[in-house]
């Protein structure tokens, strides 16, 4: 028996590394990710922040849709040098400002930063002063909304918000789009989301 174990160990050792990686990946579970419409009468905000690693230049973006998955409003802007975490909070903060400006009362907030959700929803403490400023503003605005729910979604389900955030890098001034997104790629993403396109995410 000991001989058999030794031989098995030896065989495992000589497996080429790329093959070993492929074998391990076969055992990883995959999940389906789909953007979902909010309930009737609700408005959904998907927000995102973007930061270019080499330069630190950051931007934000977000998109509002109704229960029919119809585009209501999109926003994007450059926020100068920052980091990805601050950009995420800035994107949510700007989105909440637009919620209050437009008088929406039942709001579902959705982003792909799990850390942000933990900090806001679970009151997780933060050390960064800039992040704390955003947290304070966000916490002051959310109670002004009649119903406000904050949730996390994987990046595959947050593509439209990510596209707006990417557009923000090229803007000199903050911009808002109403009724229809002006970017062809973005219109395609919105349509795919409305139709319930599913993406496979490997954990």
UniProtKB/TrEMBL annotation:
Residues 46-167 form the RNase H type-1 domain. CDD domains: RNase_H_like. One of its GO terms (molecular function) is nucleic acid binding. It comes from the Eukaryota. PANTHER family: OS05G0353850 PROTEIN, REVERSE TRANSCRIPTASE-LIKE PROTEIN. This is RNase H type-1 domain-containing protein. It comes from Fraxinus pennsylvanica.
């Amino acid at each position: 028996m000991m001989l058999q174990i030794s031989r098995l160990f030896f065989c495992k050792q000589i497996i080429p590394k790329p093959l070993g990686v492929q074998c391990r990946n076969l055992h990883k579970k995959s999940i389906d990710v789909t953007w979902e419409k909010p309930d009737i009468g609700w408005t959904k905000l998907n927000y995102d922040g973007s930061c270019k690693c080499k330069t630190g230049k950051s931007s934000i973006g977000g998109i509002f849709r109704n229960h029919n998955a119809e585009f209501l409003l999109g926003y994007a802007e450059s926020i100068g040098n920052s980091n990805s975490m601050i950009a995420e909070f800035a994107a949510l903060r700007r989105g909440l400002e637009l919620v209050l400006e437009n008088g929406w009362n039942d709001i579902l907030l959705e982003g792909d930063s799990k850390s942000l959700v933990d900090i806001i929803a679970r009151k997780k403490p933060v050390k960064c002063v800039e992040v704390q400023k955003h947290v304070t503003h966000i916490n002051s605005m959310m109670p002004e909304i009649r119903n406000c729910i904050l949730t996390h979604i994987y990046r595959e389900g947050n593509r439209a918000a990510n596209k707006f955030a990417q557009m923000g890098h090229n803007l000199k001034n903050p911009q808002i789009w109403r009724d229809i997104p002006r970017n062809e790629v973005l219109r395609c993403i919105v349509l795919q989301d409305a139709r319930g396109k599913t993406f496979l995410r490997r954990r």
